[in-house]
Design a protein that fits this description.
The chain has 546 residues and is α/β, with parallel strands linked by helices. The protein contains 12 helices and 25 strands.
Length: 546
Amino acid sequence: MICRVAVLALLLVAALVPPALAAGGGSTGRLLVSLEQRGERGEPVAVAAARRAGSAVPEIGLVTVKPRPGESLRALAHRLRRDPRVRSVQAERRYRPRFVPDDPALTDAETANGTPPGTVVQWWVARTGLFEAWDLSRGANALVAVVDSGVDGAHPEIAGKVRETIDADPSGAAGPLVDETGHGTHVASLACGGSGNGIGIASAGLDCGLIAVKTDFSDSSVAESIVEAANRGAQVINLSFGTDGERATPVAVADAVAYATLKNAVVVAAAADQDTAEQGDPANIVQPTGTGSDLTSNLGLSVTAATFSDQKAAFAGRGSQISLAAYGAFERGSGPRGLLGAWPQAETVFDRGTSGPPVTPACRCRTTYRGDSRYAYLQGTSMATAIVAGVAALVRDLNPDIPAADVVRLLKETARRPAGTGWNPQLGWGIVDARSAVEAARRLDRRPPVSRLSAPRRTRKRTITLRWTGEDTAPPGVEASGVASYEIWRSTRDRAPVRIARTRRTTYRVKARPRSTYRFFTVAVDRAGNREDAPGRPDATVRALP
């Protein structure tokens, strides 16, 4: 089971700065005009011809204006930009308060020895860019399946978050809402645990829902778990476990992963918890050997663990099977040894240890946080994988039109790494960056536009005037690219339709022959290249009379 246990230590952190303000509250309908000359009260004629609105700051050459009646904002901006005394013209935005959940682990100060001052319990949240990401997406409509040892369904970080359960454990153990080891509860709490509830921790995916899947980690059980999770509509499937990779990958598990991707699920698997280039199954299924540096060659994401200093954790996997990284440890030999997460109330296998084989010592990972002993510190690629799963949930919630393959690529492309660098064998494409990922998803238009054509039913004229309307829509919070053009299609005498024109206009005239019947429809194409599907029946049928 991929998880390095941590010694008892509280990741508490010096209080964050009071909530900042975030952009994105919408446009004010005004323009920010920055002048070449600063510190002067005079204004160019172009600015004087606009309506003053908002603030003026002579020290930095700022004037705020809005259009006069009858002039559009775009026309005013165009006129201002032609004036050589104007340095820049930008649409003014309105800020809104930054959203910060009230979970105390986001602000409580860390007390473990060796931790830099100002570190908070959930230090990885800010460093992953989650506060900014949560301003745009809170994950409420995303569903993450955690295939693991089950979850403690009574835990306050889990209760209310479980949408479905799947029992793929044939051993006869208690069901998916009982976790005998603690691992599944911890992973689930980092991915989609209760957030904004005033207790404990916040999860990466904030408000995302959970499918709790209990497995005995046998090949057949894992294959069943993945397939069932995909069938239940999981948009993200978290696999925080693996093998040593010494034996051939079972066809059944590879088939299950492929099935899940065909069902449009983002499969996220943990890399090895040892410094090796072989990550074992299922990580080496989603990112096969030699493909890590290829953005397009994968069935999901293989995740290694990064530390507080943005380096690969000493215990974590590396090499060409690594997709990207997320925080899974603090630092070797100093500070808190792991990430704080939920833990079952009852004593677990990890608490007791096992007599083997192999012998596993007691983890001593359980801790009491704010008087509640249902928490523990664990470090490992398992924890890093859960964070990536939560970030993927935010992306899928914001922009449900993005297919799973594009989400995988987007998370790689937006991962944080030194400027000008690409993939490397230590951290893959870099450390997952929730802010950049969600921002990129907001600008990714994958929804086709729609259009509707109208025309007279009958005409004695020798031309037919076609008119149509079109619209390019997008999910809330996503930028629609806008309709670029329309195709006009026509069929006669039950023949297959043919395209007769492509235009940006919304009217078109075609010639008509007497005693002929014509059928028309339009297909809209937007600036992102999305193409409207042809309708099942024509928009309009026109009969040309004698």
